[in-house]
Amino acid sequence: MISCRAPGKLFIAGEYAVVEPGHLAVLTAVDRYATATVADAAAGVAGEFGTAIGAPVGVHEASAAVTGAVAGVAVTLRSDLDGGVTLDCGRDGERLVPLTPDAVVPAAFAYVFAAASVIDRLLTERGIPSRPYEVDIVADLGDADGRKYGLGSSAAVTVATIAALGQFHELELTAMQRYRLAMLATIAVNPRASGGDVAVSTWGGWLAYGSPDRAAVAEIAAADGIDAAVHAPWPGLSVRPLPTPTGLALQVGWTGNPASTPALVAGLGTATRTPGDRATFNARSNDCVQRLLTAIEADDSAAVGSEIDRARELLLDLDQTSGLGIMTPRLHALCAAGIAVGAAAKPSGAGGGDCGIALVDRTRTAAIAELTGRWIAAGIQPLPLRTHPFEGETA
């Protein structure tokens, strides 16, 4: 039995611009996790966990009728997300397929199945037999009611699954190879995903990230295979660890309203902005992130705060001109509370709900306490998060 965990994330700056290849963002990993546990399983035997997805009787026959010859259960995926559910998978030739009546992957398993499929294709390309296995996914990236905080649960689940399956099949993957495999799985589900959350879930710590050209990467995988895509150059990709600022305390508040990052990012493409407007936003965001990187590496707390405020203003302008709904009333309140106590504050991620951040001089304990009180009064839940440290090499 092998278990691997991956941390959640917070965007510090660079949201929306980083969706475009080569554009930059700063993120940090936090100490909330998704854990994937892989165990050997006899073919055709599934464990017990939660509620099975698909009809309990005739599911294998129905799948076989849709996809051809499916030889029993090869893989069982189980998750404690969405109340605890199970998905059995079989093989149609060399292809992993869900054993559901319509042979469609349920949304609850989109990223786990994509990760398993990417590893499966890699094994086939390398001539490595795939053993039957079971995967259990657990996560603490939401509240007790199952509502997600917006800490990148999909990315953490994908990264943890890739890492665990890589160890199970003795693939000896480097951190960069794990990132690339997790990214290939991610863009199979969401082609617009920047991958910043995937990167920080892979490496941890504070990270400077430039997004790759996902369309080019997907074309390589489709034409030449997963192994080729893992080793080919990825245009636009850059990953660099950053020091954790020593003079600032990172405070995180949750609005209580989960948001859909893919929907908000997709909305950017149809918002009433001209290409020139978007290019201007991207350029200004990149300039802000570049200055932020300089400030972080110099451990200049005042300059870090100034760029966080600038990043917030850029998001406000984007919201006003595009109508995306980035800034909800509670995110406005979260930022206003931060400004009132002398902190730098902004939404973290795509907005529309989820989390916001405030960076406060860590010696100003009274200001931190006042910020917490203001957030609670505004219906914002402070989250006691710490940075998950950087691990591994980026080369």
From TrEMBL:
Pathway: Isoprenoid biosynthesis; isopentenyl diphosphate biosynthesis via mevalonate pathway; isopentenyl diphosphate from (R)-mevalonate: step 2/3
Keywords (A to Z) from UniProt: ATP-binding, Kinase, Nucleotide-binding, Transferase
Gene3D superfamilies noted in UniProt: 3.30.230.10, GHMP kinase, C-terminal domain (3.30.70.890)
The keyword Transcription belongs to this UniProt entry's keyword annotation: no
InterPro entries in the record: GHMP_kinase_C_dom (IPR013750), GHMP_kinase_C_sf (IPR036554), GHMP_kinase_N_dom (IPR006204), Phosphomevalonate_kinase (IPR035102), Pmev_kinase_bact (IPR005917), Ribosomal_Su5_D2-typ_SF (IPR020568), Ribsml_uS5_D2-typ_fold_subgr (IPR014721)
Entry-linked Pfam families: GHMP_kinases_C, GHMP_kinases_N
GO molecular function: kinase activity
Residue stretches making up the GHMP kinase N-terminal domain: 121-205
EC identifiers of the protein: 2.7.4.2
Domain of life of the organism encoding this protein: Bacteria
Membrane-crossing segments per the record: none
Chain ranges of the GHMP kinase C-terminal domain: 295-367
Protein's recorded name: phosphomevalonate kinase
Gene name in the database record: mvaK
